[in-house]
Design brief:
- Pfam families: HIT, Methyltransf_23.
- It comes from Tangfeifania diversioriginum.
- By secondary structure, the chain is of the alpha+beta class.
- It folds into 2 domains: 146 residues, Vaccinia Virus protein VP39 (Rossmann fold); 107 residues, 2-Layer Sandwich (HIT family, subunit A).
- Helices cover 18% and strands 25% of the residues.
- The strands form 3 sheets. It has a 6-stranded mixed sheet with strand order 2-1-3-4-8-7. A 5-stranded antiparallel sheet has the order 9-10-11-13-12.
- A hairpin with a 3-residue loop joins strand 9 and strand 10.
- The longest helix is centred in the C-terminal third of the chain and has 22 residues.
- The radius of gyration is 22 Å and the shape is elongated.
Length: 292
């Protein structure tokens, strides 16, 4: 089974005018501030929007590979997700969440006219390319038989009425590390160590074991990405990873969250035993005992 799609760039089309999703958003005055076209293909939208004195940068791994610097008020991502495999889609959602300013908005245009999903031979280039139907859990602001446009905002910037769970309605001033379609990560409000992060599924559920396998996997995918960010930012010497399930195990908020705690040489006198320390008397192994 293929897990990569090396020829997805071949689906980029030559155009002589602004794309349809860009025209819709421009007419609605939604392309504001510092703008990024993520997956810009051959760059026609960037060219046209620049001519309208919009501050826009284009990024495409194949055609414009210089990775964007800083954060953006508006991010455009048109027809990119339709030609990516699931893991690649998640990576794009995560990257865009990181590049978006806390109060910014991203717009995803996805095709609604796809009749066949999977790999096929491109008619012009004669290479295997991939396409799929994409549905997102974000606000839909436009749809016809050919295209749907979703508006994305950071999870903690959307206020939910009559919701008291602090992880379903996180503070808007908390730093959101990154976000996927089904999970997000923030720094712990009362960190054990520098870089202490929480990975949280968006679904309200108190017991980790009641999440579906797909939901659990989404959390671990995000955790791996957060670990890379924390490593680059804080340079820790190790990590503890833990989940508290039920009050007797120390859970204080009835919503699943995974702790990713960076560890540093000398942060405790005797680190031996690690997570065994949840029961202090059992943390250290008996002397002369062989661990296999």
């Amino acid at each position: 089974m293929k897990n990569t799609n090396p020829y997805n760039h071949l689906t980029a089309k030559e155009r002589d005018k602004l794309s349809y999703p860009a025209r819709i958003l421009l007419n609605q005055n939604k392309i504001k501030g510092r703008v990024l076209d993520f997956g810009c293909g051959l760059g026609k939208d960037v060219e046209v929007l620049k001519s309208k004195e919009i501050e826009i940068t284009g990024f495409d791994k194949h055609y414009f590979p210089e990775y964007p610097v800083g954060k953006f008020d508006t991010i455009l991502c048109f027809y990119v997700l339709n030609v990516l495999l699931p893991e690649e889609q998640t990576n794009v959602l995560i990257e865009i969440s990181r590049l978006l300013k806390p109060t910014g908005k991203a717009y995803f245009a996805v095709r609604r006219d796809i009749k066949y999903e999977g790999f096929r031979t491109h008619k012009i280039h004669q290479k295997p390319t991939y396409q799929c139907i994409v549905k997102l859990g974000y606000k839909s602001i436009f749809r016809n038989e050919n295209v749907e446009i979703y508006e994305y905002r950071h999870f903690n910037q959307i206020k939910r009425k009559n919701v008291t769970c602090p992880f379903c309605n996180p503070d808007s001033d908390r730093e959101l590390i990154l976000e996927s379609a089904t999970a997000y990560a923030i720094y712990d409000k009362f960190p054990v160590n520098n870089g202490h992060a929480l990975i949280i599924p968006k679904k309200h559920c108190s017991d980790y074991f009641q999440l579906s396998f797909k939901e659990q996997s989404a959390c671990w995918f995000v955790l791996n990405k957060v670990k890379e960010i924390i490593t680059a930012k804080f340079n820790p010497d190790g990590f503890n990873v833990g989940i508290n399930v039920n009050r007797v195990a120390g859970q204080t908020i009835d919503h699943v969250h995974i702790h990713l705690i960076p560890r540093y040489s000398g942060d405790v006198e005797i680190p031996e035993g690690g997570v065994r320390g949840v029961i202090p008397a059992k943390q250290r192994y008996p002397k002369n005992d062989v661990i296999k």
